[in-house]
């Protein structure tokens, strides 16, 4: 009965989610226009993760053998800031850096990223630590590789969150080495410290619905073998803080079917019990075909500067050509979080990009000159 009620809730969220377009505010002069922005806020190279900390937005990017940061008080101006290299790998086995996230845990900065030795079957998660109050200062040091399982299966797209004084790692991984197909699943484990797991990994999501298992593009482009995808997990909470919401990207990123799914668990539940997590049976964020905005996903939630509102960043495509070879054509957009009656975000689909949107509450106007 609970599963039926949850499925019904998800269907309601999906049905009432709209691709509404905002209205242009009347009488917007040159001064007032500093309060508004238009999507996209950046190209796809902005990075997939932005962290708000003490009035500043930190955007992180892993590239080649380095980790790069940019910072701004106005999240819509991150694209104008220079990326600064804060760490470079000296170990050739820790290369092809990607999927970086920045977190502040127990008064220290930690960077989680994926690296490999030029063999994609050896992708794994690494952690950097910096004890400086400012992540652009001090020194990031490699704490090492996180051993996510005894067989060292592929692990990538990691994120961390704290609940009731316990620290958890969530990531995308393989259940086993690929042979004729590849399946990317979502796992969770508890952490002894920010670089060491204290429990076995627990599978909480695998591609099972049709909308999670698309791997052939609309133009027929496909990978050499089937790849079924659950990846890029991000953790958020309901408005009343009583639910843990885990968003993830589903289906092949090289297809227009790429979309966002969601798992939900009670905040008081045993998060290492796979039955605590309930999957929404429909996507919670998908294409706006009317405005030709495709494959929206890889969401990242951030508060407004005064922390009275929440927004979500996401990546989206505006064309269906060369999706397999032109992943860099993704753009980064931002929308305000709207909530349903149960305090669950309504994501819907991307708003049309000619819409003038109000900047997050508390955004400093002085920095927009």
Automatic annotation (TrEMBL):
GO terms for biological process: carbohydrate metabolic process. Residues 1-21 form the signal peptide. InterPro entries: Glyco_hydro_43 (IPR006710), Glyco_hydro_beta-prop_sf (IPR023296). Keywords: Glycosidase, Hydrolase, Signal. Belongs to the glycosyl hydrolase 43 family. PANTHER family: GLYCOSYL HYDROLASE (PTHR43817), HYDROLASE, FAMILY 43, PUTATIVE (AFU_ORTHOLOGUE AFUA_3G01660)-RELATED (PTHR43817:SF1). This is Glycoside hydrolase family 43 protein.
